[in-house]
Design goal:
By secondary structure, this protein is of the alpha+beta class. The protein has a single domain, classed as Alpha-D-Glucose-1,6-Bisphosphate, Chain A, domain 4. Helices cover about 35% and strands about 20% of the residues. The chain has a 6-stranded antiparallel sheet with strand order 1-6-5-4-3-2, covered by helices on one side. α1 runs antiparallel to α6.
Length: about 220
């Protein structure tokens, strides 16, 4: 594993060790997000009205929403990947290969399109497509809604990622596994994804100086 992967693994261990501490769990589920962002209604929340689990995580990107958007549109298995730890994704058979460039062949996305989530998982259907603003998916089994919200922050973008997951009637063992393994694991992967999008968008963004100067 490379240095980033080791850091991610160390963060997972630390997160799991504190899984039953309410402040630690709050941090796991709202990494990078403000209290206002975590509490706010987002477009797409209505797609799964009563989730058992909600996470809201965020990052600030020094690039305009229009620069960030193409990286979101091309995400997916067999497409632009997830900009996270590909080696972990591919251990699960998800066929993720994170792109380092905008891929024109994956820029045409429409409401109703279903993107595969590996060979065995449910597909992710595009439910909301508001360019440079909101991209929301719902799994074909109705158990997961994933929302990406882009908001302008002066010369940059606030990228908010929200997951709403149905967790029906799980046993205490399953709840323990979710709390100690799945929740910290989702933080590790999503944190890397958010930073991966940030890095790629900023590489391709015009400088703040060039935006301020007249042409």
């Amino acid at each position: 594993m490379n240095t980033a992967a080791w850091k991610g693994a160390a963060l997972m261990v630390a997160s799991a060790a504190a899984a039953y501490s309410p402040p630690a769990r709050r941090w796991v589920l709202t990494y990078g997000a403000t209290a206002e962002e975590a509490a706010r209604q987002l477009p797409g929340d209505e797609l799964l009205p009563h989730p058992g689990l909600v996470s809201t995580r965020a990052v600030t990107i020094d690039a305009a929403p229009s620069t960030v958007w193409p990286w979101l549109v091309q995400m997916g298995s067999g497409r632009g990947g997830a900009y996270s730890y590909d080696w972990i994704e591919n251990l699960l058979g998800l066929d993720m290969h994170s792109a380092e460039a905008i891929l024109p062949q994956f820029q045409e996305l429409t409401v109703g399109d279903v993107l595969p989530l590996g060979p065995k998982g449910p597909g992710m259907r595009v439910e909301i497509l508001d360019p440079d603003r909101t991209l929301a998916f719902r799994s074909t089994d109705g158990a997961w809604v994933w929302i990406f919200q882009l908001e302008t922050r002066w010369l940059g973008t606030r990228l908010i990622s929200r997951n709403r997951i149905r967790t029906p009637g799980a046993s205490w063992r399953r709840r323990l596994v979710d709390r100690v393994v799945m929740e910290p694991g989702s933080l590790i992967m999503e944190r890397r994804m958010l930073l991966g999008i940030k890095e790629r968008a900023e590489w391709n963004a015009p400088s703040a100086y060039s935006l301020l100067m007249p042409s």
